[in-house]
Amino acid sequence: MTAAALRFDGIGKTFPGVKALDGISFSAHPGQVHALMGENGAGKSTLLKILGGAYIPNSGTLQIGEQVMAFKNAADSIASGVAVIHQELHLVPEMSVAENLFLGHLPARFGVVNRGLLRKQALACLKGLADEIDPAEKLGRLSLGQRQLVEIAKALSRGAHVIAFDEPTSSLSAREIDRLMAIIARLRDEGKVVLYVSHRMEEVFRICNAVTVFKDGRYVRTFDDMSALTHDQLVTCMVGRDIQDIYDYRPREHGEVALKVDSLLGPGLREPISFNVRKGEILGLFGLVGAGRTELFRLLSGLERVSAGQLQLCGEPLHLQSPRDAIAAGVLLCPEDRKKEGIIPLSSVAENINISARGAHSTFGWLLRDGWEQGNADQQIKAMKVKTPTAAQKIMYLSGGNQQKAILGRWLSMPMKVLLLDEPTRGIDIGAKAEIYQIIHNLAAQGIAVIVVSSDLMEVMGIADRILVLCEGALRGEQTREHATESNLLQLALPRSLAN
Amino acid sequence: MTTQHNVLPTARKPLDLRALLDNWAMLLAAVSIFLLCALLIDNFLSPLNMRGLGLAISTVGIAACTMLFCLASGHFDLSVGSVIACAGVVAAIVMRDTDSVMLGIGAALLMGLMVGLINGIVIAKLRVNALITTLATMQIVRGLAYIFANGKAVGVSQNQFFVFGNGQLFGVPVPILITILCFLFFGWLLNYTTYGRNTMAIGGNPEAALLAGVNVDRTKILIFAVHGVIGALAGVILASRMTSGQPMIGQGFELTVISACVLGGVSLSGGVGMIRHVIAGVLILAIIENAMNLKNIDTFYQYVIRGSILLLAVVIDRMKQR
């Protein structure tokens, strides 16, 4: 089937009080991978939801070829050959791969599923995409990358010729990303229209033929010639201003050792890990997914018990039984998954900021002091530049960047010695990223030891004084800021069998 | 969807108005229903009926205060109906055997505390689902109530004991006063103490609360322990009103209490709840039941109507969230 061009013409979408999209017009052509870029809140996801039939635009039209589409729901969109592969995959973990592929139209007679036919169809679907997946396997047992392939196979089996990816690589390993890129290239060569939403520059330059940039719900411009486009040009266009160096690195003096990790072992770690971090130092921890970075942080923050080895904080032995012990000692963690482990979504911004420190500022430790509650929330909102109408706003209505700043504000209300940041800027727009980097630098300048876990190489190299590389649950090497390059860090991060 | 409210100051006012309506809608509804009944139903406002209404609110109202904490923390407690019965029985038996009102009440509250602690420890430390845990203790405690009472009501002869159920202060029945005190106290506890705020945080996002340094297990145990004691208090008051401890009383009471909370706007999934939700829910349920009784509506029809109202309320709540 030859696909026709996808054309947005004057698309607008308004939510109560917010113009999410305003007069978006551009075309994406078959045989091309078309990137959509912009800061968070720029409107990319809203546009994809309109494409997928989840939202109905207030104005404008959507055309595929010559035909004007008016999707009323997701079923309309799928029937017109559109597939949107979301970040959160729409699959049922408890069911088999085959059942997931044909959910909603399982091959059946009088309601009885034809197992043999189902398996045959599933195998045909997966062929060439993910041959190693057994259709009978429970979906929940597949890796995230494999689940995504199942989702793609499902889209193709329904005859999709417009395929949109929303941040498809955010939780994939390097190997899985390579595989996904190859598949996207294949879809492109088969003449599909591919839309690609991502924050990751290197992917956009690697796979895309055109880039459309959004800002604040408006169309900014489309770059058709990727070879003439530079990284900086694209960033400048997205942010709307020049960014020389969003990492804002300034050399600092380092003090004595703040946290000493000695032969540490625990769940998720294969070999004992030892390292130090000094006061005022920013230590980067780089590694691929599954390298043990998050597991190491779970040990340092008291979420998991240490099975062997010692921790020392400022020369004193540190024994952690629970997150409360770590917090009391001044070892504070900003978790990787903000929604799941960081924020309390239905509570106000003020609640989210005050929750940890309030015990020390309450009468008898349990009776809240109104003055402190309000004062501290306002102070942290101001210091962290959290954009919120009031401190009483529910935190779930804030953007990811502002939620992250509120969590930083939570820890800044506390006595802090070591700050553990797990993927501090994942899914956060460039403007807010720059602010968070600045906060990190200011904290380090005050003598706080900061450990940053990130799978974003540019970020680790941009902010850290020193970088440790983890691989498969073991410490693989260390690079100083001066000597760190993308290739030597990646070389260390790749599992040995692959690196050679 | 990300929304940067700070760039849209004009959008603030309608939002606030909506929040205001959301917060107070059910209480307004309760007041409207009250006024409607006062206008349309003869004798609704008569002192005798008002007294009856107040007493009907009291038992559910007291237990609903602490059920609010259970629900706000993302759990619930089915054992409260049995605790009420057992507390009445225990109080009656201890008073019969010792002739001491204080000892009787103390023993009943202690029994409530024990049940609450067991619920809390099993749920928090052993991580058993609250539904199953309290379903089990509900049956155990009901059985104990029958065993203690030998299967029949245990009469009380101590006159001082009847103060709690039938006494008056400034013309207001004591159970109603205790209910009002509970509303005030637990409303305050929820908003102005670390215990209350931690309860909301646990219900809102248990993992985030743990990582933020909240003592999650201890708070959960405390929630159920307090709920046990307050359930027992409601049982003591009920026994006092009826001048006996009755092991069969309060069957299905736990569902009435949960219905009242949810009807008022407390979320079953945790993290959302205010004392005014509870007050509104308790009022609406009690007023409607009272009105139906005055109108001589058949009990069988009353079940259908009560269930329909609950269903309607949660459906409206669901639609509001869209």
In short:
Chain A is α/β, with parallel strands linked by helices. Chain A has helices at residues 44-51, 74-79, 97-101, 115-126, 144-157, 174-189, 201-207, 231-239, 293-300, 323-329, 338-342, 349-354, 370-384, 400-412, 430-445, 457-463, 486-493, 496-499, and strands at 6-15, 18-28, 32-37, 59-64, 67-69, 82-85, 108-109, 112-113, 162-166, 193-197, 210-215, 218-223, 257-265, 273-278, 282-286, 308-313, 316-317, 331-334, 418-422, 449-454, 466-471, 474-480. In chain B, a hairpin with a 2-residue loop joins strand 2 and strand 3.
Molecular structure report:
The complex is a heterodimer of chains A (500) and B (322). Chain A is 33% helix and 24% strand. Chain A has helices at 44-51, 74-79, 97-101, 115-126, 144-157, 174-189, 201-207, 231-239, 293-300, 323-329, 338-342, 349-354, 370-384, 400-412, 430-445, 457-463, 486-493, 496-499, and strands at 6-15, 18-28, 32-37, 59-64, 67-69, 82-85, 108-109, 112-113, 162-166, 193-197, 210-215, 218-223, 257-265, 273-278, 282-286, 308-313, 316-317, 331-334, 418-422, 449-454, 466-471, 474-480. In chain A, the strands form five sheets. A six-stranded mixed β-sheet of chain A has the order 6-9-10-3-11-12, with helices on both faces. In chain A, strands 18-19-20-15-21-22 form a six-stranded mixed β-sheet, sandwiched between helices. In chain A, α13 packs across α14 (400-412). Chain B is mostly helical and 322 residues long. Helix content of chain B is 75%, strand content 2%. A two-stranded antiparallel ribbon of chain B has the order 1-4. In chain B, a hairpin with a 2-residue loop joins β2 (168-169) and β3 (172-173). In chain B, α1 runs parallel beside α12 and α3 (80-98) packs parallel to α5 (130-149). The longest helix of chain B is centred in the N-terminal third of the chain and has 29 residues, at 12-40. The radius of gyration of chain B is 20 Å and the shape is globular. The chains are: A alpha/beta (500), B mainly alpha (322). Chain A binds chain B through residues 15-18, 20, 40-41, 45-46, 301, 303, 322-324, 327-328, 333, 335, 340-347, 351, 354-356, 358-359, 362, 365-368, 370, 387-389, 393, 397-400, 410, and chain B through 1-6, 8-12, 14-15, 192-195, 197-198, 200-201, 204-205, 207-215, 271-272.
